[in-house]
Backbone:
């Protein structure tokens, strides 16, 4: 049986990380604290870096008597603005192997599911002329609820599959969360082990593993038009 839909993560799969990733994203958090008149400690900043919990984030705001919902909205806007600027400045660009997407789109319904902000994802697709390849696009909503629904939660993966009217999908990602979300949603997974994932351990085996998107047409179940 072949896959009737291909879903892709964005960061590290379609889009290159900034050379200073993830340190550069501290800037967005620092700017947010500054807008609220607070000089944050390293612990305050760490509370909002990838892997932190909502409890840690709420604690950092409570320590400075900041309204968490207002802080979160400002932080999301700052992070998205920072990333858009990096794309415009050539600091974040698609991987060269994204060239294979045109071929894959001729034989599959395709979608994007990212834990990044939806506005950032949409901007990236338009900025690099990729939007026409995807019929379902989901980044996280800029709310706490949106954050809680990010991978490995299956919320956005399932919405994308529903939008595409697909029943057998392959999710292409580069993280443990991607593999877990795919399997929990009943999808197969393709783990892209790029150079930034050398030695990266996964909690469970992906269905497929590739080192480049260019290898996807040769993955069992993936058919191209070539």
Residues:
């Amino acid at each position: 049986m072949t896959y009737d839909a291909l879903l892709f993560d964005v960061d590290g799969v379609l889009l290159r990380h900034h050379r200073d990733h993830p340190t550069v994203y501290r800037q967005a958090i620092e700017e947010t604290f500054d807008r609220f008149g607070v000089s944050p400690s390293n612990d305050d900043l760490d509370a909002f870096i990838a892997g932190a919990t909502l409890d840690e984030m709420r604690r950092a705001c409570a320590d400075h008597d900041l309204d968490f919902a207002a802080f979160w909205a400002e932080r999301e806007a700052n992070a998205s603005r920072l990333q858009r600027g990096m794309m415009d400045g050539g600091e974040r660009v698609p991987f060269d192997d994204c060239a294979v997407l045109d071929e894959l789109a001729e034989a599959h319904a395709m979608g994007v599911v990212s834990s990044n902000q939806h506005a950032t994802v949409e901007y990236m697709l338009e900025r690099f002329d990729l939007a026409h390849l995807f019929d379902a696009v989901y980044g996280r909503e800029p709310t706490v609820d949106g954050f809680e629904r990010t991978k490995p939660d299956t919320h956005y993966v399932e919405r994308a599959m529903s939008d595409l009217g697909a029943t057998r999908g392959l999710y292409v990602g580069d993280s443990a969360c991607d593999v877990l979300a795919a399997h929990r949603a009943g999808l197969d997974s393709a783990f892209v082990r790029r150079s930034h994932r050398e030695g990266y351990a996964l909690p469970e085996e992906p269905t497929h593993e590739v080192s480049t998107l260019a290898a996807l047409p040769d993955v069992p179940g993936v058919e191209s038009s070539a």
